[in-house]
Design a protein that fits this description.
This is Multidrug DMT transporter permease. This protein is mostly helical and 286 residues long. The protein contains 12 helices and no strands.
Amino acid sequence: MWVFFAFGSALFAGLTSILAKCGIRKTDSTAATALRTIVVLLFSWLMVFLAGSQRQIKNIDLKTILFLTLSGLATGASWLCYFKALQLGDINKVVPVDKSSTIMTILMAAVLLQEEITRFKGIGVVLIAVGTYMMIEKKGKKQAAPENNRWLFFALGSAVFASLTAILGKIGISHVESNLGTAVRTGVVLVMSWIMVAVTGKQKELRHIPKKELGFIFLSGLATGGSWLCYYKALQDGPASVVVPIDKLSILVTVFFSYLVFHEKLSLRSAAGLVQITAGTLLMLL
């Protein structure tokens, strides 16, 4: 059953990237992250009460709280980096770099969670790494300028923090219902994102967000909430080294909708890279 939740997570995560990109064309990415986190938090707690998980709050131990908090901080950092990267670069380049967090997650799962790296997983890691490199190709000399490559640094930061999120989240939800765990860590993300808004002085920009973009930010928050609920349910019942790769198949959803919405086309090299990433991900399921 956890496999279906993992694929559900991939679908909603793919939609999140598209909706978020639509919501940050003129809106600052940090402010947008803080606003959409409110939506995710409300959605998460709604699911907690629908599932009746609120009764377990008093049973959460300190170790669980610690790892859920750390996971939330890692998620907040990943989000801030990811949406800044989306604002600066093309979706078809940002997303593959972000999804390369699969590689680090598998290695960390092997070291910290004693999850086995099989031959297929090893081959999958290589394919994902090569495919990611192919998808972030440079098309011209102008793109090689440092200011045009800022998105890459933020995308790499997103990938690193995303891998930490998966490992810390896996440990944190070992002894708590997944909906409740998601809600608790989302609260941490909310606090962190609004602190970043205050520190960077972005609160003034909240008054000037176009209504249309505000709507897309709201929808991206709902998509994220759906993705998280599916993801952590799958992570609770299944191995992190398999759940995470399935979740990263959201890249297919993102590429498809980025073509429909933003008319971003893949070159032959990028398309070949996407095929390798997909093949590497599917190999990990064997």
